[in-house]
Amino acid sequence: MSAPPAPGTPATATPEIKQPAPASPLAGPAGPSGRSALDWRLRFGALSLIWGFSFLLIKVGTHGYAPFQVTLGRLLSGTAVLAVAMAVKQERLPRTARTWGHLAVAAFLLNALPFSLFAYAELTIPSTLAGICNATSPLWGMALSLVALSEDRPTRRRVAGLGLGFLGVLTVLGAWQGFSGLDFSGTAMALLASLSYPVGWIYVRRTLAGSGSSALSLTGSQLFLGTVQLALVTPLFTTAPDGFPLWPTLSVVALGALGTGLAVLLQYGLVTEVGPTTAQMVTYFIPVIATAAGVAVLGEQLSWNTPVGALVVLAGAALTQSRPRAAEATARTPRHRNRS
Question: Which pTM does this prediction carry?
């Protein structure tokens, strides 16, 4: 869910790997030019829908399972999809203990922690609000760049985007009304989940770039470690479910297989074909789809300030991602993104 990578998104996270990302083995047969036979716009739309609906699937999953159980099922299903993809591509697992150690930290920051926080948050807040909170990840990333000595130098336009984005957050939350009716704990957990993504991205860029492993191998291994982490934690805080209710079970499986597994593979193909800048535009469609799904399917209430504030958040996020044209040309080195 944020972009993954998440929710959003994204299926999960955005580690930047200094090497070409492999084309998705599930994106369809390649044509003579090496591109997928399925138009990239269709795959872009599919990815937007998958990540946008992730917040609805989380909400339905929590109707039958504890949040940690939702996250464990999600990671297990997502890992299974990537394991198949790795077997098809004959990818090798990372070989050094150092790489596995860094991946364990990345799995916590980009998968186990944000996925669990979103699941807990949606016990008390609408899926629409969770989807909008996910869209604040670029804003948190910009804020971190001001204090974390990030390689991304802030510009006036990006700082303005940061201020505009957080103004949008205050609009969504109804600050002028004293935040009346707002569940603070749930909202704080959703915002903390969104903050966890850029923290993880910075960590991965500084520790795993040039590791010698492919993006697919690193992501599959990362999801596996996240699954192990949740498998250890979940029994300590939950009891075994009495049964396996149909819709929550299907939602958790779909959340993992589609939103955390297939979405990563689709993202690989998009980054390889159209570049990271265009592929990352999916981030701005996620809250729109999450809001529409929550209202249409779950019957969640929507006041005027929610869509207006969401648009302001997205405008601010877009400004924080803007770069000089010279930097845009350099940025076409493919990256892979794991969302909620």
Answer: 0.82
| Residue owning tokens 């198949």 | 84
For 81-129, write each residue's pLDDT tens digit.
Answer: 999 999 999 999 999 999 999 999 999 999 999 999 999 999 999 999 9
Q: Are 220 and 86 in contact (CB under 8 A)?
A: yes
Cβ neighbours of 34 (radius 10 Å) = 9
What contacts 73, CB < 8 A, 6 or more positions away? 61, 65, 252, 253, 255, 256
As to burial, measured by CB atoms within 10 angstroms (0-12 exposed, 13-18 middle, 19+ buried), residue 57 is buried
- AA letter at 299: G
- φ, ψ dihedrals at 264, nearest 5°: -65, -40
Q: Residues 286-335: pLDDT tens digits?
A: 888 999 999 999 999 888 888 888 898 888 888 877 765 554 444 444 44
Cβ atoms 159, 338 nearer than 8 A: no
Dist CA 310 CA 331 (whole Å): 27
